[in-house]
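Q: Could you fold this chain for me?
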Amino acid sequence: MNNKNIKLSKSEIKKYTSYLSTNLIRNVVFFSGGIILFIAGCVIYGIILNLREAPLSQTTADKGLTTLNDANILIDRRAYKLMLYDDTVFIKSYKANFGRNINVPKCKDGDLATPVGEYRICDIDTTSRYHIFFKIDYPNLTDAKEALRKGVINQNIFDKLKFDSDYDVCPDSSTYLGGNVGIQGIGRLNFIFKYLPFNYNWTDGSVAISNEDMDELYSVIKKGTKVVIK
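A: Sure. Below is the predicted structure, expressed as structure tokens.
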């Protein structure tokens, strides 16, 4: 059987090239359009869900309260919720997302995990790139004791963290344990992320809620507020 080279004329090559280009463009358009429709659908669904949420002023009034005298926060990583209480009275819950490493509690710098335990808000930053930032006192004395017991920090570092704890200042975040985490808004991508109807953990370890939700919390939260993360 003789092998013969198949030669195409310039007009045939142009025809096939045009056909392939047309199909490629069509496929790209359909694929891109599908992604856009999916994102738009998620956003619209998220907007509908958010419209159902009552403002903090209403949920507070529904409890027969005019102000919160002992506001505190409970955060449930498994339920993706941040819950606001006045003493033991539940006031309102907020959708929350966490550090990218959701499977373990934070124990070292750069692990992208969210701390677990009982903390206090040690600083409030209203100029944060994430809208508002409530910094918590991680690593606190409990974290420092556990780290010293495991031998991951030495006595000098423990004494420094204990000093910070005794004087109610934000702890040093430059140690092996890391730090500079807390509760934050979303920032400039707020319009997209706040309407996602699914959970997406994207932070370096902080707890993220929408900018609007941070504004509500800012109206009742102060330095020293207790924050429990479980």
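A (continued): The two ends are 76 Å apart (CA to CA).
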